[in-house]
Amino acid sequence: MTGEAHVMKWSSLVAGLVSSVALAQSPETLEAVRLHKPEARALVQADLQACEAHRCAQAGRLALLAATLALSDGEAAEARGLLEAHPAPPLLEPFHAYYRGQALFYAGEPAEAAQAFALAAKGAPPSLAPRAKARLGEALLRAGKTAQAAPVLELAATQTPSAELLYERALARGAKGLTEGARADLRTVALRYPTHPYADEALTRLELLNPPAWLTLDEHVRRARAFLDGGQASRALEELQKATAHRPAETPLERARLALARAQTLFALGQPEQAEKALAEARKGPPEIAAEAELLVARRALRANKNDQARELMAALDRAFPQQPAGDEGGFFAGWLDLQAGRFEEAVKAFALYEQRHPRSRRRDEGLWFRALALLRLERYPEAREALALLVSGAPKSSLVPQARYWMARSQELGGATAAVTAPAYEGVIASAPASFYALLASERLRALGRTPPVAFPSPPRQLLVPRPPELELAVALSEAGLFPDAAEEVESRVSRIRSAEQALPFAHALLQLGEFGHAHAVAARHLWGRAFGARAPDALAAFYPRAFASAVEAAATRHAVEPSLVWAIMRRESAFRPEVASAADARGLMQLIPPTGTSIAQHLSEPAPNPADLFAPDLNIRYGAWYLAQLMKRFSHPVLAAAAYNAGPKAAVKWAQEKGTLPLDLFIEEIPFRETRGYVKQVVADLYLYRTFYGQGAPPPLTMTVPAPAVEGVGF
Known about the structure:
68% of the residues lie in helices and 0% in strands. It has 39 helices and no strands. It has helices at residues 14-17, 27-34, 40-53, 59-72, 76-85, 93-106, 110-123, 129-142, 146-159, 163-175, 179-192, 197-208, 217-229, 233-242, 252-268, 272-283, 287-303, 307-320, 325-340, 344-357, 364-377, 381-394, 401-414, 419-432, 437-448, 473-480, 484-496, 501-513, 517-527, 529-534, 538-544, 550-560, 564-575, 595-604, 618-636, 639-648, 650-660, 665-670, 675-695. It is globular, with a radius of gyration of 29 Å. The two termini are 40 Å apart. The relative contact order is 0.06. Mean pLDDT is 94; it is low at 1-23.
């Protein structure tokens, strides 16, 4: 089904438009459609019947929406009838033709479908054209018009090389006798998209060629790793069993690579004895495989919390395989494990050795930072500054530079330097990285020295009132019609064609006015960074720090006694203001709530458990997220700990506070063991203070530089 595997997403344009436009669809109907609720189709049908009874002007738009919902339920004949009974709504003629083509295709009329797709492609905007052309090629092929289908599919698969298009092009090439081209496309589908349904069909067709085109052992291993990464360990094992079906593993490298893949798969299947046997074989292989096998052993020890054993294994890996990437990883983690265990002298030595052995490592800046951190804990401040200075000079584009500059200043202060020395250094951190967590820390240090910090941003964000660009008219029309996936595709298509800050600024503000905060933020991140954080322009800052969904945020914050600024800071980090986002862990919506958490929150609020799709609704998602944040703040009393708990869970935050809560706040954060959580906490707290500064009443309260003890009772999920 070419081009129809839509990710669950929609445009939030409706938030700023529906209330002010007279629509045949009721607001309840549009909300149900937007959230893919089970009752959506019935509501649309009822609205259409009412519209037809009153001969309202919006019947064509309602019929188009009803047809798309019928298609999603597999009712092609019904969709065809709806579309043929009503004219296309203004601006949406190509979409009407496209969905009519879909209905005809799935009703078993590929030749007529091809005519509809050709009509759609002729007038399609860039957001629809690739889909229309791809479906045109597929319909022509299904209708037996291979000669006409081939050039369409050649172009479509070149422009958008999806699994579906490559497979269809392979069929067209095969029908024209272009065996090598067909073979190449089928192999690409099987290897690049191994978990796609067409991949198995591609393999079958490869085996039916004359002569058969068997995959190599390495290709089978690649597919197995893809299955394993996708959580399909049983499929991975099946793939590995096929690897030697037509040719045995002959070289030591092939045997070792296959053994390592088997070991990883068997561990994932919970068969450790068989896995260990395969792993033993892999460890005897050539260096590149043996090193990966030893790294697997060390990582398993680390996951089992056998940190001392893991440390020995990592160091041994580095000694045995210094030229392999796995040896690089081993050397780094040997030092990191020393640091986590509080063996600061050993960590300094380990990271110094790491720098000597791996001077071109991609982790060199991290190695320098962690050596400096160990030296800071040992109060060897001049040596720490030396390592930090190497980081700044040797990796000037590293994301670690702001923290290196902050800790250079802080180490001077801790070493007894006067304010005359340290204050300019702190001011330099604020000037060079004004929106960073380290600018916030530097400001607090300056206040403690009796100095007034420089103002990072002279003017708060300012939203501009701009005319709606003509480029957005189609997206608006699609949203008004309830075709939210198409509206999102259209906005993304327009955004992708912006090439300069001059184009980006008015477009971003138009998106803000329409309630498209996520797209506005994306435009700003791509084109307005220098204007916002270099020139400190308030119009650019507005797209980076919008008061997104303000009425819902402020209402939920008031109801649950939590700061709106904290809600916005979490929202910015979690979803970048995009309501449709779903993570690999099934976290959903603006505040990235997983369904079990949504159910637990509903229980505490004495509400029915929400349907998982409901968590994408901005109002519900914000309300639940605000309640959860309020509970975290009640238990942890500090935004740093609340943010850590939001990301890693309350249990982890309690553990870290108990183990290292006596450290000053800045050191406490640097020693959070999870890299993701460290970065998360820093961004959320920096954004919290920026939102407070930009939109609060008066100066924000100081950041408490001590770590409070969490309450024993409180939210634990």
